[in-house]
Specification:
Four Helix Bundle (Hemerythrin (Met), subunit A), Heat Shock Protein 90, 5 domains, 27 helices, 49% helix
Length: 789
């Protein structure tokens, strides 16, 4: 049956899920600690509460089953029976049936549960494994007429106080096994009333403690007050606009009066009093306007600062509402580990740390299955049997640690075991057998790269399909989920000692901390969790290795690529040699890290760090390579958010449009210098100095010759004498500066004229440098030239 009232249905969904999760955790605890009477009493209270809720809402089947569980737990509390593993199995299977029936009451989906047989199982106090014996003594019924209606069960069961009384009841079919019942993810002990209702992998209900909501309400109230204060400023703005309009009118009237008097020839004598009056009036009005503007600026500053504080606190509060403790999913794994270990005849203890670490609700949704798979792999592949462990000198009972801890806005989840660790040789054989890598490729791979093969699609070291593993759907799904959360996953192991999986995620997914970079005058955002460091790279540090651009970082050769190439954009080369030289002195480089892999990205500039709200892409652009989404910066500019895992893949197959070496060679092209000097000896000596420094020199015999040659060709600088026939150096410099295309052309005057007046004249006509021949030094001259060009 399904609860008809929608509100009551929603309340029952949350309450029943919480009760069931607490009962399950209590049963697990009692199996290991059967003498813990305090826990047993708490378990009885939870069972009684679930029974009461079910009775009130008419979920009779749950009421019936919880009543019988109460009877069993009560007998344990009174010492009439002992809480053993078989009893735990019986109660757990009964709880699975209750979970299914509660799910039916909420969703209307048939539970497929034979309440009659579950109840019979509970009253016998045995698990479903005992039903094979019962079937041998009880004949199967040919139809369902022998099954008692459920409505009659309470009257029968009330009198059935022993197994003998109940054994006379007819049975229609063997009981179901409920290990695959619908799992409802809830924390065993919700912290501070924070509670998440999970359904079909998505959290659709979050219970938040009242203190958080009160704080949010307070901030909203502050926001409303600040909004009113800002609205009050509109009145002052209107007053200033009115004052400005009045000034405009007065200026217009004065201009009209002046024009009329001018036409009549009465300008000077009549306008003087009007001008004086207008000046005084204008001075007063401007003073009022200035005071109003200053007052408005001060208020705007105060209100803006207050608004920023309130909005930041409000944003932080809203984000915290989405945060849930990892206990929401961590406590689900106790029973999973127990059941899997028992199924494989292994002994495993699960130790959990950091379950009160708070993370975004999406992490709770996305990480349940990956963590479950890692635990299953640990039990199936990593943990040895008790006999093997004893032979190896280990305790018979293996230990799996599930640990979570937070550093800043980053949360790390570690799953470690003390099993046999990874078998590198088995990984190699499996990779070759499944066609993931060839033997030649494996030879060239590092140990870390070989370890990473366990995350490849279809990878498995199992040759036969088992219930737990070997289906080829494995850790690649784990990595896909982690990548979807913009996180990283690493694996470490010691042969014979165990294995560790480390997952690093951002604990807050509502906002993303990014690094803003510029490429082709466009902004792009790089999530900082993938950024290891930023540095300036000299072109001399970049070299070619196996056909790719590489440079050495911390003793490791790292591939580097232009971000523009990966995004399919042209690499912009500065038009001028000077700009190109400046750009190539040091290139901004971002070192990305994904697991054990590193990649250097060359960008134009690195701007700033920002917290952004990631906007999901539309369905038409659901999966654009290298792009994770978009955001809007404070300037209003739309900025693409990059996808680092995609960038690593793109870098392996990208075609380099222009290498750093090619740019460096282009920058090293000889720069052209126009040398204007009438003295042959000095001209020859200056030419040799310039050419030995790597410049291409064109000589001119005087200023006029130099100006003509300047118009015929393009030069990077002009070096000229001052005293020359026809046109001297000062006049030549003045002519050069008269032409717009030569406004920035460097001009150096080299002369014997050394007075301060001569230097002043050189500066006035536009020379960039003035060097006297009496104090001429070759090094100073060349340094000045290099600085200017």
């Amino acid at each position: 049956m399904m609860i008809e009232d929608e509100e009551l249905r929603s309340l029952y969904k949350a309450a029943s899920a919480e009760h069931i999760q607490k009962i399950e955790a209590g049963l697990l605890h009692l199996e290991k600690n059967p003498q813990d009477h305090a826990k047993l009493e708490g378990l009885l209270r939870e069972t009684h509460s679930l029974k009461g809720d079910s009775r009130m809402l008419g979920v009779k089947d749950v009421e019936t089953l919880t009543h019988q569980m109460e009877e069993i737990l009560g007998s344990v509390l009174q010492g009439e029976r002992v809480f053993t593993s078989p009893l735990y199995e019986c109660l757990s299977q009964g709880l699975d049936a209750i979970r299914k029936i509660a799910h039916e009451a909420v969703t209307g989906q048939p539970a497929g549960v034979s309440v009659f047989h579950v109840l019979a199982q509970l009253m016998r106090g045995e698990s479903s494994d005992a039903w094979s014996e019962i079937q041998e003594t009880v004949p199967e019924s040919e139809d369902d007429s022998s099954i008692l209606p459920l409505a009659q069960l309470p009257t029968v069961f009330d009198d059935a106080k022993s197994e003998d009384d109940f054994s006379t009841l007819p049975l229609a079919q063997p009981p179901l096994v409920f290990r695959d019942a619908v799992q409802v993810n809830q924390p065993t002990e919700p912290v501070a009333d924070t509670f998440a209702q999970v359904s079909d992998g998505e959290i659709d209900t979050i219970r938040v403690e009242s203190q958080r909501l009160d704080k949010l309400l307070t901030q909203v109230g502050e926001l409303v007050v600040t909004k009113g204060q800002i609205a009050d400023q509109l009145v002052e703005i209107d007053e200033m606009i009115a004052l400005w309009e009045e000034l405009s009118r007065q200026i217009f009237v004065l201009r009209q009066a002046y024009e009329n008097l001018e036409r009549r020839g009465q300008g000077s004598s009549t306008l003087q009093p009007m001008q004086q009056n207008f000046s005084k009036s204008m001075e007063n009005r401007l003073k009022q306007l200035g005071e109003s503007l200053n007052r408005l600026r001060n208020k705007a500053f105060d209100y803006t600062a207050r608004l920023e504080i309130v909005s930041n606190e409000l944003q932080s509060g809203v984000i915290s509402v989405r945060l849930l403790p990892l206990s929401t999913i961590f406590h689900l794994f106790h029973r999973t580990v127990r059941d899997l270990a028992k199924q494989q005849a292994k002994e495993v203890d699960l130790h959990i740390e950091g379950e009160q670490t708070y993370v975004d609700k999406r992490i709770i949704e996305e990480m349940k299955d990956p963590l479950m798979h890692i635990l299953r792999n640990a039990i199936d592949h990593g943990i040895e049997t008790p006999q093997e462990r004893l032979q190896l000198g280990k305790p018979a009972t293996a230990t799996i640690h599930l640990k979570a801890y937070q550093t800043g806005n980053t949360v790390t989840i570690e799953v470690s075991d003390d099993g046999r660790g990874l078998d590198v040789e088995a990984i190699k054989l499996a990779a070759v057998r499944r066609g993931i890598r060839s033997e030649e490729e494996l030879v060239a791979m590092s140990t870390a790269e070989i370890q990473a093969l366990i995350f490849a699609p279809g990878f498995s070291t199992r040759t036969a399909v088992t219930e737990i593993s070997g289906r080829g759907v494995g850790l690649d799904v784990v990595r896909a989920n982690v990548d979807r959360l913009k996180g990283t996953i690493q694996v470490e192991f010691t042969p014979g000692r165990g294995c560790l999986f480390r997952i690093t995620l951002s604990s807050i997914l509502a906002t993303t901390h990014v690094l803003i970079v510029q490429v082709n005058q466009n902004s792009y955002a790089m999530p900082v969790e993938f950024v290891e460091t930023m540095l300036l790279v000299s072109p001399q540090e970049i070299f070619a290795l196996e056909g790719s651009q590489t440079f050495s970082y911390q003793g490791q050769a790292i591939s580097v690529a232009w971000l523009a190439d990966l995004l399919g954009l042209p690499v912009q080369v500065p038009a001028s040699t000077q700009a190109l030289n400046t750009a190539l002195k040091s290139i901004p480089c971002i070192i990305l890290q994904l697991g054990s892999e590193r990649l250097g990205l060359l960008v134009d500039t690195v701007s700033e760090l920002q917290d952004i709200v990631l906007k999901a892409q539309s369905h038409l652009l659901k999966r654009v390579c290298n792009i994770a989404g978009a955001t809007i910066l404070g300037t209003g500019e739309v900025c693409m958010v990059l996808n680092p895992p995609d960038l690593f893949k793109s870098a392996k197959k990208a075609v380099v449009s222009v290498t750093v070496k090619e740019l460096r060679e282009k920058a090293q092209l000889k720069q052209k210098i126009l040398l204007v000097e009438d003295s042959i000896p000095i001209r020859t000596q200056m030419r040799r100095i310039l050419e030995s420094a790597g410049y291409e020199v064109t000589a001119a015999v005087d200023g006029q010759d130099g100006f003509d040659k300047l118009r015929e060709s393009k030069f990077d600088a002009v070096v000229s004498d001052v005293q020359m026939p026809n046109v001297d150096g000062l006049e030549l410099t003045a002519r050069i500066r008269e032409l717009p295309e030569y406004k920035e052309l460097p001009v150096i005057l080299v002369t014997t004229l050394a007075s301060e007046e001569d230097k002043r004249q050189g500066a006035e006509v536009g020379a960039n440098a003035y060097i006297t021949k009496g104090e001429f030094e070759q090094g100073v001259f060349l340094d000045t030239l290099r600085r200017l060009v």
